[in-house]
Design goal:
single chain; 447 residues; alpha/beta; FAD/NAD(P)-binding domain; Polyamine Oxidase, Chain A, domain 2; 3 domains; five-stranded parallel β-sheet; 13 helices; 21 strands; 32% helix; binds flavin-adenine dinucleotide
Amino acid sequence: MKIGIIGAGMTGLALAQRLTKEDHEVTVFEREPQPGGLATFQDHGEFIFDRFYHVILPTDRYLISFIEDIGLGDKLRWRTTLTGFFVDRKTYSVSNALEYLKFPPLSLWSKFRLGFTILYCSRINDWQRLEKITVEDWLLKLSGRATYEKLWKPLLLAKLGENYRRVSAVFIWSYIKRMFSARDKSASREQMGHVWGGYKTVLDRLVDVIARGGGSVKLGVTVKRIFAAEDRGVEVLTDKGSETFDKIVFTGPVNVLQQVVDPALVDVQGSGKDVEYLGVLCMALVTRIPLTPFYVLNIADEQVPFTGVIGMSTVVDTEETAGLYLTYLPKYMLSTDDEMRLPEEQVRDDFMRGLRIMFPDLDDTDIVSARIHRAVKVQPLQVLNFSEIIPTTQTRHPDFFVLNTAQFVNNTLNNNEVIRAVDTFVEMYRDTLVEGPATPADLQSTA
Ligand SMILES: Cc1cc2nc3c(=O)[nH]c(=O)nc-3n(C[C@H](O)[C@H](O)[C@H](O)COP(=O)(O)OP(=O)(O)OC[C@H]3O[C@@H](n4cnc5c(N)ncnc54)[C@H](O)[C@@H]3O)c2cc1C
């Protein structure tokens, strides 16, 4: 079948690869000049690497098997990583059980309660009841105030900005389940992986596999309208022309879906309450010297404007980054926050001020570049009873499908879940996708 896919992020490209393998002829439309969406790359001059930090966990089995399937298994690299905390203007490593037991900001009792919280959380399966309590109340109840203030609160701030107060306990439940799966059985070491060369290696391979299967990825093409073709199939109108397909799969965000898709093809039912989105401002800092030995350095210091330091070069070999060191400094906030739209210079100056607080010895001559990247809509804010307010998407045309991350209600946003969702979709619609497009008579009879 001739299948059109809207969006060349990981969802769209992974789906295109899977459908190409099943002998469909796919065309992927992407409005940006390069593929990848949130997992795209940045050209730093001396090297190219992920625009936002990405790692693979040893338990990301769908993603790992996908990487193997596209022939990049030999490019997977694993490293033991360290986690740190910047508290009271000091940095502590809390990367193994012993360091954790020694972690001065927490008493032995607080540590015991923290350990209990993590163990208890990892055993919960019924996430629905966690939607009814805020993450703050839940963690205070389980871990106590001291542990909450010193440890959980900085972590929540790092991931959610000030909005953490409105978020349900599902957020930390899914986070703990995912992050603690990165530890080996003795819980003493954390492993993180990546594909050599970053997501660019994966994206290049996907575009290549799709082309070799007779399909194409059309970059810099914005989809403006999607509607039922006059005769059979679905028509896609772009800023470059129009094309008719037997089937269409839309992988972009819900707000774009509502703007471009004819309501005769899809029904988006909201609860009346608007879904709020988190965005991220992220500085990608390239230095001549290593900045941190930690993959994640959580920050509990209100003077520091960013909420974490991500030492990408603790996972990635400096051979991949022209002998230089790559560190990301993220700050999460609501996508509607004015700060999200501040001029790049202003954000950079503010982040640089924070950098000086944390790394007073860092010399200007050691900084190669400091780029500010922003992603306005990263993921919905998982507020109380989130699964009840999230819009549901019901397609009304047998040849139009929607597959996007808005459907993740009880999971953190990650590419393992993306691949799992893609594979479930292909499994579910394999038979439907090989059927020819509905005729006007078919449509009449299903109306
Ligand atoms: C800071 C950050 C850190 C992350 N870290 C990790 C990590 O460590 N591990 C991990 O697994 N995941 C991580 N993720 C998540 C990962 O990036 C996402 O899971 C993934 O990129 C989602 O892909 P997607 O295709 O569903 O969505 P998107 O990447 O948003 O793709 C949607 C695409 O649709 C295109 N589009 C939209 N409208 C149109 C239109 N009208 N016409 C044509 N094209 C259109 C967009 O341009 C975009 O390319 C991270 C994300 C961020 C932001």
